[in-house]
Design brief:
- With about 375 residues, the protein is an alpha/beta fold.
- The protein is built from ten helices and twelve strands.
- Strand 3 and strand 4 form a beta hairpin.
- The protein starts with about 30 loop residues before the first strand and ends in a 12-residue tail after the last helix.
- Bound molecules: 2-acetamido-2-deoxy-beta-D-glucopyranose (NAG) (3 copies).
- The site of one 2-acetamido-2-deoxy-beta-D-glucopyranose has 7 residues, from helix 1.
Length: about 375
């Protein structure tokens, strides 16, 4: 009954002709293996390549929605690219979906939502041209598990999770964004891996209740329990980070782990607003390491097993966390983010409505 009337404005969509400006993905030279040759300009976004990060003279690069009145912004969506470090394309995808949603539902004001794509780059990107000599870079797979930067000055030890802290603090600064209500870290695939782990490890702040993490189609999880759905006794380090919690944490999380212990860290994680989403056709093997395979043999199976783990907790599924199954979608970020479920969670309906007020939210004009 509740489901039948949720988020109705968007069901009007087929009746509308698309008029919003759809931004095409630009062709970019290079590739993720050998490095990208540029970070392309993107209509509607500022490319900021000198974002200061404390603890280093180096800088970070972000795409951020251009031309918005900061005092009107109520929501920030922070959406990195995939393992391929195609961060610009994720900004574009999120922007297209927001434009579409705002056209379909006039109550959504796109000027209240700032989209940011943080550009976690690799050394090859500096060599190929996308990053200049002062821009921070990480190893090709390290950035999404929270490791320290590899350069320009590795001794600065800037975790990719420190960057996320910095970006959250940017939006939480009341003197710039007096009306900000929510930050959504939106992650698909590699970025979903990143946010599942970051949600556990980040240090508590007063604003934690305003921060949400979307974990869509991750290749693996930081498993909360020490046993596994598909155990393999000849596989080493199954329960070490990034696959588990029995040590091996990156520098960013080591202090927290030492202080809280496994139990405390799990408790901290379960209190955070994590929103899982899985495409029901996301059935490729993805990460084929034996550690990942003990969580399930495909992306979808790992997701199902993780949900079973949550549901089997003595406290039950945490009230701060949600699960969406996106029917028929595979490992496709645009289709995932543009599903009715994720579109609403990421950009368009406040979490207040989602969690507290389904019964108050009763559009009267249409039922499906
Ligand atoms: C999102 O989905 C709607 C409805 O299926 C479609 O009309 C629209 O073009 C999609 N937008 C994007 C950016 O994928
Ligand atoms: C790095 O590149 C950006 C343009 O991509 C430029 O704005 C910035 O000043 C550059 N920094 C240095 C030190 O060259
Ligand atoms: C178990 O782990 C070993 C060691 O990596 C690997 O060779 C083997 O294929 C794994 N077994 C399964 C069923 O994944």
């Amino acid at each position: 009954m509740v489901a039948s009337r949720s988020f109705l404005p968007l069901t009007l969509l087929p009746l509308l002709t698309a008029a919003y400006t759809f931004i095409d993905n630009p062709a970019v030279g290079g590739d993720d293996e050998n490095g990208w040759t540029e970070l392309p300009p993107v209509p509607g976004a500022d490319l900021i390549s000198d974002w200061p990060i404390s603890g280093t003279d180096s800088t970070f690069v972000v795409y951020r929605s251009a031309g918005l009145d900061a005092s009107a912004i109520t929501r920030a969506v922070i959406v990195p690219g995939a393992k391929a470090r195609d961060h610009w394309s994720y900004w574009i995808t999120m922007k297209n979906i927001l434009s579409y949603a705002a056209e379909a539902d006039p109550s959504i004001d796109p000027n209240t939502i700032s989209i940011m794509s943080p550009c976690f780059m690799a050394q090859v990107d500096q060599q190929a041209g996308a990053a200049n000599s002062t821009n921070l870079y990480w190893s090709k797979t390290g950035w999404f598990s929270g490791t320290y930067n590899e350069g320009p000055n590795a001794k600065d030890q800037i975790s990719s999770f420190d960057i996320l802290d910095n970006l959250a603090a940017h939006y939480l600064d009341k003197s710039t964004y007096p009306n900000l209500e929510e930050i959504v870290f939106a992650g698909h695939s590699a970025a979903a891996q990143m946010f599942q782990r970051y949600a556990a490890l980040r240090s508590p702040i007063d604003n934690d209740a305003q921060i949400h993490y979307i974990v869509a189609n991750p290749g693996s999880f930081m498993w909360l329990a020490s046993d596994r759905p598909a155990p393999n006794s000849s596989c080493d380090d199954v329960d070490r980070y990034k696959y588990g919690m029995n040590g091996g944490f990156p520098g960013y999380g080591t202090g927290t782990f030492n202080r809280l212990g496994r139990h405390g860290l799990v408790e901290q994680y379960l209190a955070r607003n994590v929103h899982y989403a899985h495409g029901t056709a996301d059935d490729g093997p993805g990460d084929t390491s034996c550690q990942a395979v003990t969580q399930g043999s495909t992306h979808l199976e790992r997701g199902q097993n993780f949900v079973s783990l949550l549901q089997s907790l003595s406290t039950g599924m945490p009230s701060t966390q949600t699960i969406d199954w996106v029917e028929g979608v595979s490992h496709q970020n645009q289709e995932m983010y543009n599903s009715t479920q994720l579109r609403n969670r990421v950009c368009c309906i406040t979490f207040f409505f989602l969690f507290l007020s389904l019964d108050l939210y009763q559009p009267t004009h249409l039922r499906l």
